[in-house]
Design brief:
By secondary structure, the chain is mainly β. It has a single domain, classed as Beta Barrel (Porin), CATH 2.40.160. The chain is built from 2 helices and 9 strands. It has an 8-stranded antiparallel barrel with strand order 1-2-3-4-6-7-8-9. The chain is elongated.
Length: about 170
């Protein structure tokens, strides 16, 4: 219910911002995403810069609603780079993610991610996108004065809606 409220709030306040007809060089997109991972799920605020016609760099800052229900604050910071190849009304291309998630539940758990996959997007100035990527994750935590490190594979499934601003 809260996610739906934030999406409607975002859509309501974004109408006063002028939009680009096309996503061009030097434009910014702002949006909301929902990400599902092997270990957690995150709702994020996303800022994307279109550095050239088909190259995009994005920063996502998020929190975990699943952990918040357990009264644990879990934060997420992710940077990604993607190359977009336009196909009629769709855009499709590879994406590379690097990010870190953290939460404290008596012990601080840190997850460092790196992954590669694809991004599919459609629409302008409102753009819906879907991403799927796979890669290694390093989990670190300290328990009973011993540092623990686990390396495992992780997936990232992401749905998002963003808006092009000048």
């Amino acid at each position: 219910m809260i996610r739906t409220f934030f999406v409607f709030l975002f859509l309501y306040f974004s109408f006063g911002i002028t939009a680009q007809v096309k996503t061009g060089v030097g434009t910014w997109n702002i949006g909301l995403t929902y990400e599902l991972q092997k270990f957690n799920q995150f709702s994020s605020l996303r800022f994307q810069f279109n550095s050239s016609k088909n190259n995009q760099v994005a920063l996502s800052i998020g929190f975990s609603p699943q952990k918040a229900r357990q009264t644990v604050f879990a934060s997420s910071l992710m940077v990604d780079y993607s190359k977009r190849f336009p196909l009629k009304k769709l855009g499709l291309g590879p994406v590379v993610h690097v990010g870190m998630d953290s939460y404290v539940f008596g012990t601080r758990f840190n997850y460092t991610h790196a992954s590669m996959g694809y991004r599919m997007s459609m629409g302008s100035p409102f753009q819906f996108f879907q991403e799927l990527s796979f890669g290694p994750t390093l989990e670190t935590f300290e328990y009973l004065s011993q540092a623990h490190r686990n390396l495992t594979w992780n997936y990232h499934f992401k749905l998002g809606l963003q808006y092009a601003i000048r």
